[in-house]
Amino acid sequence: MNRRNAITVTSAGLIHLTDQSTPLQAADTPLSTDLLIRRAKDRGHTDLGWLNAYHSFSFGQHYDPEYMQFRSLRVINEDRFAGKGGFPTHPHRDMEIITYMLEGELEHKDSTGNQGIIRPDEVQYMAAGTGIRHSEFNPSRTNTNHLLQIWIEPWQRGAKPQYAQKSIESGAVEHKLTLIASPDGAENSVSINQDAHMYAARPALGQRHEYTVEKDRHIWLQVAKGQLTVNGTDLAQGDAIASSAATRLVIEATTDAAEFILFDLA
């Protein structure tokens, strides 16, 4: 099996949903019931004391052949670093690495001379390319941070390493799907080396977002905080849905302080 297609709509490791308990109002484009669900409790888990991490896909010592990746999306790690906890300098290559902060701060230093502190409403991007070494630590002595670390396979290996850190307009994320990363850097997003679009949103209780899925595109939605419904399916913090067949998504927040990340992949 090709790694790029290790998780598809036929993967036995995901639950195939065929009905919804609460039908939504009919629309010109029908809502898909062909969703796959990845529950938070079924993810891999690593607890090192200073690090508490959950892995949507195989990572490190956690290996699950049913969850190697989805299209070019290779890693979604939900990490919490205790105060002063972190990874010492270590190498990466040929991977697009995006850090999305949910709470607290993360301090970054790398071998190309870049350094900085990432906070909520900021996104950090590192193209490892031919090779880069970096460290990342929680600079607080007392507060635990909370973040999503995302790896996307590049469409070309051996590229020059790159680094970017951008602010996200908080008000925009609270009212609409905001583009965070894209292949062409559209809408002030981070430009990445892959045909992948990453969106973020923080809907208020009862607020809906609708997303049209173009033909031959593939969707992964990760709940970062709170609870949502997607096409009538209940999702909680840490849950995810994936689809290679959906044509339209209706996403509704069922709690305050909900937040999610949506990936639109080739």
CATH architecture: Sandwich
Q: Give the SSE order as H and E letters.
A: EEEEEEEEEEEEEHEEEEEEEEEE
CATH top level class name:
Mainly Beta
Oligomeric state of shown chains: single chain
Strand content: over 45%
How many separate domains make up the residues? 1
**For the largest beta sheet, what order do the strands appear in spatially?**
1-2-21-18-23-16-14-15
CATH third-level topology: Jelly Rolls
The CATH H-level superfamily is Jelly Rolls
Mean pLDDT score: 88
Structural class: mainly beta
Number of strands: 23
Rg computed from alpha carbons, rounded to a whole number of angstroms: 18 Å
Largest sheet: 8 strands, mixed
Kindly describe this structure.
Helix content is 2%, strand content 46%. The protein has one helix spanning 170-175, and strands spanning 15-17, 35-38, 44-47, 51-55, 73-81, 86-92, 96-103, 106-110, 115-118, 122-127, 132-137, 146-152, 162-167, 178-182, 190-191, 196-201, 208-212, 218-225, 228-230, 233-235, 240-243, 248-253, 259-265. The chain is mainly beta. It has a single domain (3-265), classed as Jelly Rolls (Sandwich), CATH 2.60.120.10. The strands form four sheets. The chain has an eight-stranded mixed sheet. It is globular, with a radius of gyration of 18 Å. A hairpin with a 4-residue loop joins strand 8 (106-110) and strand 9.
Summarize the structure.
With 266 residues, the protein is mostly beta strands. It has one helix spanning 170-175; strands at residues 15-17, 35-38, 44-47, 51-55, 73-81, 86-92, 96-103, 106-110, 115-118, 122-127, 132-137, 146-152, 162-167, 178-182, 190-191, 196-201, 208-212, 218-225, 228-230, 233-235, 240-243, 248-253, 259-265.
